[in-house]
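Weekly modeling sync, notes
Attendees: S.R. (lead), two postdocs, one rotation student

Agenda item 3: backlog of single-chain predictions. S.R. asked that every request posted to the team notebook include the full sequence so nobody has to chase files. The rotation student volunteered to paste the first one in as an example of the format we agreed on. Action items at the bottom.

Example entry:
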Amino acid sequence: MNTPQQRVPAPAHLSDADIYEQLIGAVLDHRLAPGTRLTEEKLGRAFGVSRTRIRQVLVRLAAEQVVVQTHNCGATVASPTPADAREVFEARMLIEPSLIAGFIRQAHTHELECLIALLAEEEAANHRGDRRAAIRLSGEFHMKIAQGAGNATLEKILHELISRTSLILMTFGQRSPGRRSKAPLRVHEHSCGCDEHQALVEAIRARDVREAASLMKRHLKHLLEHISFEREPVPGPDIEFMFRQG
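Predicted structure, as returned to the notebook:
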């Protein structure tokens, strides 16, 4: 059964940054599927802005490899390949052990409390069967670690990688580790792994930099290993309805 499309409320006067955040949020929240056409005219009507402003936002998303722009064909949400998926996770495995080490060295108590609160929200989303929210919260968990590490450059890089990870999960889905069936789970039926996130939190609490970095790399390796590289059809949304203001 398809999930009903959701409209996104927004302020009456939108900046380019506001439009960008709504579009990237729709990707992270799995409402914009890979291959979805992003028509400047429809988005302009939906947001109540000119096509020129929409074009500027799409150029930014293309630079982050979330959107693909083709001459005479417009923009579409990127459709990652298996090679793209491996590259993204290899990049994450390079930078996230360093980020969690930085978090342990730099973060304050309230930042750890925020991380624990996100984990609790992720667990609650899993328990109520809201996999879409669980996957979004998983990404926020990793971004919170990056923010607390105090390295703005790596934080920016990870933001792009997490957006691309979301597209990868939308495109391929994941297998459950203990599943006998070869059929892949749909993307909203599996998330980043609360148990492994809990282990990361415990290593942070213990201020064990080596263990935390090792756990992070292992966690990301597990995520890549459980991706099912079989595409599943995803219905395209009505983008004008989704983003219409008022």
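Discussion: group reviewed the output briefly. Confidence is low (pLDDT under 50) at residues 1-5, 7-11, 177-191.
Action items: rotation student to repeat for the remaining queue; S.R. to check formatting next week.
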